[in-house]
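Q: My labmate handed me this sequence with no annotations at all. I'd like to see what the chain might look like in three dimensions before we decide whether it's worth expressing. Could you predict it?
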Amino acid sequence: MAVQLPVAFLQRMEAFLGDQYDDFLASYDNPRYAGIRVNTLKIGVREFSEISPFELRPIPWCDSGFYVDESLRPGKHPYYHAGLYYIQEPSAMAPAEVLDIRPGDRVLDLCAAPGGKSTQIAAKLNGQGILVTNDISAERTKALAKNMELYGVRNAIVLNETPERIARAFPGYFNKILIDAPCSGEGMFRKDEDMARQWERHSIAKCTVMQRDILRTAASLLAPGGRIVYSTCTFAPEENEAQIAAFLEQNPAFGLIPLPEGRGFSPGRPDWLAMLAEKAQALPEEDSVSPSALEGPEADATSRCGRLWPHLIEGEGHFLAVLQHKGETRPVSEEPAGLSAEGRSSGNSPVSRQRRGRNEPVRHPGKKAPNERELADSWRAFASEHLAAIPDGEALLFGGHVYISPVAKERLDGLKTVRPGWYVGTVKNGRFQPGHPLAAALKADEALRVLDLSLADGEAIRYLKGETLEIAESRIRRPAKIGAKGFVLVTVDGFSLGFGKWLDGLLKNEYPAGWRWT
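A: Here is what I predict for the chain of 518 residues:
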């Protein structure tokens, strides 16, 4: 066995799994499975299958997910840099699928970094509704924000906050919430050997306390009739069925929705809760689950949860529970109770005055920040000159930059906001400078000047490396009355890569230095 598994972990799994243990243990000798998920914000599944550089084999629980040969290095293809697919462990595609996202939903991804599930949610929203994607780690939100931008998401807000602070700003706001909870990571031991080494230090006991608190807070964020999907990548029943049983006992307005049949899901294990109760292995009551939750009707209900087992499917371990609020569903177009109209529009409540500084821009002595009118006017002028139409949505001016945000700025007042919406650019030296996220989310027919690069001769890769390209004026596709000079949307096979600035036969490369092909 290539992976060194903790002895205590093996003893637990043997006790839980019984006659399935040998098959479970043998799965660690199998190669790990690699997957990609088509980004349907940019390309349809059928269309991608026709141009895919890889052989695709469907993943049963995700209609846009496919197994691929990892040795083909899917992260090194220009289509990856165009955001046409996301590289994702196959089992990790399941939670967002069972959240039942519909265009127009208000969705919260509470523990989101690095962003795979958030990009999956955004694709299902199809540009309609709102996605608030959050991670408590400031460092991890960097990858989260980058993935939102690379995959062309226009209607997302990226936060770096605690669940409790989000609940104060968005009480009862969301009709769909995903909790991919921090966990002991047992299901990822084959994929990441360091998780196996850290298992005892990153203990089950510590994780259950975090999970309990996150679930409690999520209930206050959910609108009546809404849905929460709770998932982990661990096998431990203390972190899975026990958490759900305790939540149901404390929140009788919720019930469990069974997972779809025929997609690889095995049922939850309420019998393991009985084992925990019998052997007194549950955590102390003040930290975890009451004995009644381990043995009562809530425990029996956890058979409606689902598990993905590495010895039964092609993927790693995962747990899922679909929690449905039984209240009357409120149309998502309605503004939920919470902030008053005065508080939303003015930002002058005592709380607003106290916290406003947390999301204000850093000012540098000697540098004059552009004022709001300058920013807004410059953005509109740029869009009129370079885009077929000004994108829908009100421009939000935030930290010296222009965003198209799905919510009013006051809603974010006091929150640590990494991205308040779709970043479109800023003003430098009196001129509007478009941001790379603007280009990444544009389709070719939305730009007035477009340059399509070739895969065959390496031109697209040279652009991704940051090189200046010699480009004949005749190659810039544009309306007849518009010159080639100016910002150009650079595409590969018609899919956006970024901006370039064309002048006198040369394309100055605007692809961000930190994103370049290495």
